[in-house]
Design a protein that fits this description.
This protein is of the alpha/beta class and 278 residues long. The chain has helices spanning 2-22, 27-33, 60-72, 84-93, 135-139, 156-167, 177-186, 196-202, 206-211, 237-252, 255-261, 266-272, and strands at residues 43-47, 76-81, 98-103, 112-120, 123-127, 146-149, 171-174, 191-194, 212-215, 224-231. It is built from twelve helices and ten strands. Helix 11 runs antiparallel to helix 12. The protein starts with a helix and ends in a 6-residue tail after the last helix. This is ABC transporter substrate-binding protein.
Length: 278
């Protein structure tokens, strides 16, 4: 019996590595990786440069996604910075699992589940060469030349204005927000829409602030709900809903506000959390 046991033990030692390599005995590992919140395993996140939300691997978008992933026990496989258009396209094709700071539009809702985590509003930034201070006067100013970031969407009224500017050949497209602000400061464009959480960092330079006027020319325009976007190619509705519920939990327990406070003033952070999430 001892000889037989020794033979069996030796055989098992030789056979086990091969079985593990083939995955035939990997049931515990497979079971451990099963998570209804991230059914395809570790997630890939795409960020884009957007003020306090994301820059150089840091920002409130990074902290929010990491906290959500931690709570849902979904490991993050990769975090990449992408141009806005490319991030949306990769979200659509499932090359990334999650995108951030995304406005829900009918076309985006075809390929992504989008759940808001803050509300904000676009202001109008004007170059010093523009003297108009009302929307009506602004549109009649021959010096007006608007700029926008490729892939950005705004309120319906604001997007309509940009379409008019485009039709009149008075619209230029920037690659990202840094490019937009550089064009505005240089006078290549003379007006742009931007969020306070985005332009605040740029306007801290007193010389730049002297050249730029910030106006709310759409006082009745609705605030915009910016949210986390989960690829429908990677998440079922049930899986995505788990992220949605955790976003709501973070709103209720104050975690979202605490994260925004790390990157924004107290007033700006509270303003973004003023409207309830749904």
């Amino acid at each position: 019996m001892l000889v037989l046991a020794s033979i069996c033990h030796a055989f098992a030692r030789r056979l086990l590595p091969g079985l593990l390599a083939l995955g035939l005995l990997a049931f515990p590992a497979a079971h451990a990786s099963a998570n209804s919140a991230c059914p395809n395993g570790p997630i890939r996140v795409g960020f884009y440069k957007f003020g306090a939300a994301y820059r150089d691997g840091k920002g409130y978008d990074v902290d929010i996604v990491r906290e959500l992933a931690k709570r849902l026990r979904c490991p993050i496989a990769d975090e990449v910075e992408l141009p806005r258009i490319r991030a949306l396209k990769m979200l659509e094709t499932g090359q990334i699992d999650i995108g951030t700071s995304t406005l829900a539009t009918p076309d985006r809702l075809r390929y992504a589940w989008i759940y808001p985590y803050n509300h904000t509003k676009n202001m109008v930034l004007l170059h010093a060469s523009i003297k108009a201070r009302t929307l009506a006067d602004l549109q009649n100013d021959p010096a007006l030349h608007w700029g926008k970031v490729r892939g950005y969407r705004h309120s319906p009224q604001q997007d309509q204005l940009l379409a008019q500017m485009d039709a009149q050949h008075r619209l230029s497209v920037a690659d990202d927000e840094d490019d937009l602000y550089r064009m505005l400061d240089d006078g290549i464009i003379t007006a742009a829409f931007a969020h306070p959480s985005s332009y605040g960092r740029w306007l801290r330079d007193p010389l730049v602030a002297k050249r730029i006027t910030v106006l709310d020319l759409f006082p009745n325009s609705e605030t915009l709900a910016s949210g986390i976007a989960l690829s429908k190619a990677r998440f079922s509705q049930a899986a995505a809903e788990r992220w949605h519920q955790e976003v709501l939990n973070m709103y209720k327990d104050g975690s979202l506000l605490d994260i925004l406070r790390r990157y924004l003033s107290e007033g700006a952070a509270r303003q973004m959390m003023q409207q309830p999430l749904d």
